[in-house]
C-alpha cells in the first residue's frame, strides 16, 4: 500500500479522555529535522498540553523516571535528560551520538540508537558508554532507529543490512527492513519497508511499516503477517493500552509545500480500525510513552526546579517575548539572488592527503555566509553543502550524490560547522575535491563566485588495512575489496567471499573456515566491515554451506594438507603447470618465490633440516624437475625430509611428450628421492576410487617425509587435476599430528647414574647437533654443573676443533685438554689443567703444556 497523508475522512479528537489508564498521560516526543515549525514534548490527556518546545526523539518511562533523548543534527552531540517528579534528575551529553532515534532502559542502563554512527550504545547511569553494538557498514547504512524487548532479549529495528550510507534509498527502497536480535544478530522479523517501533506482547508483534503507511500485526509463531491497517501518514511511535493502540503520524518530510503537523492516531485493536486522530503542534512525532501525571509535571518543570534562578531569568526573558506564536519557526527557503550566493568554506580539522577508493570520506568544515542574504536549510529551496570530484585530466567524476544539510540558518557573516560526507571515486589517482554550497534547483555557488569553494588535492588509494583481516582465510585484499563493493548488503558481501567467480563455493576459503572455526571467520568479517561480531554472525553463518557440498581443486587440497601438517614455507619458481599450486599456497600463507627450481628445492631442504616437513618446494613438471635433480640427490644424501610437489602438464597434453612432458619423468627422477607418487587424470564417470587413491597417496607422502631416515619425497600433480574442482572438502584426509620422539626414561636414568659415578665426564658432539634450537644453552648448563669438557667432531684432517675463536667462545682451552690427555698420569683423580674449579663453576686459565703429537695416529678421522 502506498503512503497517504489524507486525514479528511478521519475524525479529529481534542484529547484522549477515557482512552488512557487512570492517572496517566500520553507523551509525544516530536522533532523537526528540516526547520519548519519545530518540535517539542507534548502531553495528551483531555487535551494537548505543551511541555516544552525542544525537539526530541527517543522517550521511555521506567521505574519512576522519564528518559528523553534530545534531537541533534549530524555533527552535533545528542543529550540525554532524565526526569523525576520534581524535575531534571540527571543530564548527560552524548558526544558520540548524532541524529539519535530511540532509547530503551534495560536494567538501569539506557540503550541509544545512534543512527548516524550505525550503532547501539549502552549508556550507564554515570553517563559512560558501557558497550557498543556496531552494525557493519558506513555511517547510517542500516538506519537503526527503534529498540524493543523481545522476551528476555533486546532487538533493534533498521531499514536493511546495507554497507553504504543510506543504502536503503540508494537501492530503491526495497522491503529489506528487519528487526534484529542484538545478542545473536539474527533477524527476528524481515521483509518490511522502513519499519519502526516493533512491539511484542503475548506471541504477537506490532510494527509500524512506515514506508507503506501501514500498521502491521505479525504472528510470532510463523512470522506471517496477520493483518495490515492503512494510516493517514507516516506511522512512527507506538503505545498499546488495553484495547487501543496509539500510533504517531507525521506528514511527508520532503514535500516542499507541506505545512501539515504531526498527529496521534487512535486504533481500536479489536475492530482494527482508526477511531480518530489528535493533532499536535509540531512537524514530526518520533516516540510515544505512557507516563504518570506526576512524572509529566516533573518533565514540565525540567531545569526549573530552582525557582530563584527561574524567576531571575524570567524577568530578562519577559522583555524578549512578543506573545505571538509564528506559523513557521524558521525562515522560508526562497530562491536566492546572485549577490546572496557567496560563502567561505574552510577545513575544521587536520588536512587530509589521501582517501580510500570507493570509501566514504567525512570532512568537518566551517561554513561562513559572506553573501547579503539568509542561507537556510528550510524548504522549499534549502541550501546544502555539495561537492564534486575532478580528475587529473580535468574531467568531472560522477560519484554517489550526497548533500549535507546546514544545521542552522545563517544570516550574513554567521558561521556554522558542517560534517561533509563524500563518496570517493573508485579509481585510484590524483583528484581535486571541490566543496561548495548550492540551493535546491540552483547552481553551485562556486560557479558564480570561485572563492565560494574549498578545493582539496587528494590522492585516492586502493584498499584499507582491514582487508588483510581475511588473509588467513585464503582471500587476497583486492578480492575482499571487490566483494565489499559487489553488493549493497552484508549478506551479499559474505556470499561473494565464499564463492568463486564461477559461482561455485570457494573450497579453499571454506576449508580454512572449517579449520580455524566459524567464530574466527565471523570476527574477521566484522573487522573488514567495521562492525560488531554479533551484528554479522547470523548473516555469516547463514551463508556458510554444508561442507559436504563444497569441492576443492587438486591444488587447494595439496595446499590445505601442507598447511594442516605443519609446513611453514613453500618455495617455488612459478612456471605454467604449477601456477594453480602456487596460487593455493600463496592463499594459505606459505609461498615464497625462489630464484629457480633447483634453488627452491635447496631452500625447502634447508627449512626442513631441523624438522622434517617444515619446508616444501613446488617444481615445474619437465625442465624444472630435471634442473633440480642435483638438489634432490643432495637432500637425499643429507637426509633432509621435504615434500617436492611437481606440477605436471595436463593429462591431455602429456602424451605429446616434449615440450609438454618427458617420458617416465617421475619414475626416473624418483630414484633420487626417498619415495615418489604420481597421479593420473580424474575419471569423469565415478571418481570415488580416485578420490580415495589421492588421499591415500597424499597421506603416505607426508608420512614418508616425517619418518626417519628422512629424505625428499616427490608428489606429481597434473595441471588439469590441480585446477579442476573435484575433491569434496569432507573427503580431504585428516592429517595426523607428527609423532614426537618419546624419551627413553630407562636410558636417561642409566645415563644419569653413569654421569654421577664418572670422575672425568667429557662430551663428544657432532656440529650438526649444535644447529638444533636450545642445544647450545642446554650444553652450557650441563658443562657448568659437571665441569665436562666438550669435544666437537670436525670432519677434516683433525678430530678436534682448535680454532682460537672456538676456545674463546666456549670458555675453555680444548687444545690444552687434549694435550693433558696425551700425557700418562698415575693419578686419575688429579685435576685437569684448565678445568680446575669446574665443579664449583670456576675456571682457571689454561696451563702451559707440551707440544701435542699428531692426533691422526691416535684418533680415527671422521667423514
TrEMBL record:
Residues 97-285 form the Conserved hypothetical protein CHP03032 domain. Coiled coil: none annotated. GO terms for biological process: isoleucine biosynthetic process; L-valine biosynthetic process. GO terms for molecular function: acetolactate synthase activity; flavin adenine dinucleotide binding; magnesium ion binding; thiamine pyrophosphate binding. Residues 553-655 form the Thiamine pyrophosphate enzyme N-terminal TPP-binding domain. SUPFAM superfamilies: Calcium-dependent phosphotriesterase, DHS-like NAD/FAD-binding domain, Thiamin diphosphate-binding fold (THDP-binding). Residues 822-863 are annotated as: Disordered. GO terms for cellular component: acetolactate synthase complex. It holds the Pfam family TPP_enzyme_N. It comes from the Bacteria. InterPro entries: CHP03032, DHS-like_NAD/FAD-binding_dom, THDP-binding, Thiamin_PyroP_enz_TPP-bd_dom, TPP_enz, WD40/YVTN_repeat-like_dom_sf. Belongs to the TPP enzyme family. This is Uncharacterized protein. The lineage of its organism: Bacteria, Bacillati, Actinomycetota, Actinomycetes, Pseudonocardiales.
